[in-house]
Amino acid sequence: MRLILLGAPGAGKGTQAEMLMKLYNIPTISTGNIFREHISKNTELGQEAKKYMDEGKLVPDELVLELVKDRIVQKDCENGMILDGFPRTIPQAKALDAMLKEIGKPIDSVLDVEVPDEVIIERMAGRTVCPSCGASYHKLFKVETVPGICNECSTHLIQREDDKEETVKKRLEVYHAQTKPLIDHYQQQDKVLVIDGVGTVDEVRARVKKALGVN
Ligand SMILES: [Zn+2]
């Protein structure tokens, strides 16, 4: 099963990826992990990618494609793989399609875990964290005893920059602008499975399985 997994930050994509990895015995592939592996092993491709990253530049698509191809032909991808965070653009998607066609391993489905922005904002913007002991809280799911004070060590709780409503909104805007064209691209190939990502982990898991035709 070769899948592309799409979902906004905070949509619970990671949890579903874990389930799919076990279900199909396939790895999740992200370009970040591939880069890190090649760089730590100091491969030729890794050295090349590192040059761009050290200069703060984007790694060119051709090089990313080579790295992804090198990863997909490895033994643990025999049963397939989940692509997470790649492709991000239409040129990347087209290049990926061509490469996978060439090696006879086309994408089966694109799973799009959809959660309305308001729900994601509520999930993420409700989080607070203790800067001293690291304990985390949530205004809906894990409420501290004294408002704004850590249960464990009585330190004032803070909100991470990443969890602030404005930050979350901006990240969602970027995500939608980037992802919409990809969804259109794969819809033309009739490969998009839209999953309602609102609900418990088990509910969403059941929907994913149903969409993939698994009991
Ligand atoms: Zn604390």
From TrEMBL:
Its EC number(s): 2.7.4.3
Domain Adenylate kinase active site lid: 127-162
PROSITE patterns recorded: ADENYLATE_KINASE
Keywords noted in UniProt: ATP-binding, Cytoplasm, Kinase, Metal-binding, Nucleotide biosynthesis, Nucleotide-binding, Transferase, Zinc
A Pfam family per the record: ADK_lid
Pathway(s) served: Purine metabolism; AMP biosynthesis via salvage pathway; AMP from ADP: step 1/1
Binding positions for AMP per the UniProt entry: 31, 36, 57-59, 85-88, 92, 160, 171
EC class name: transferase
Region named LID: 126-163
Subunit structure: Monomer.
Function as written in the Swiss-Prot or TrEMBL entry: Catalyzes the reversible transfer of the terminal phosphate group between ATP and AMP. Plays an important role in cellular energy homeostasis and in adenine nucleotide metabolism.
Protein name: Adenylate kinase
Taxonomic classification: Bacteria, Bacillati, Bacillota, Clostridia, Lachnospirales
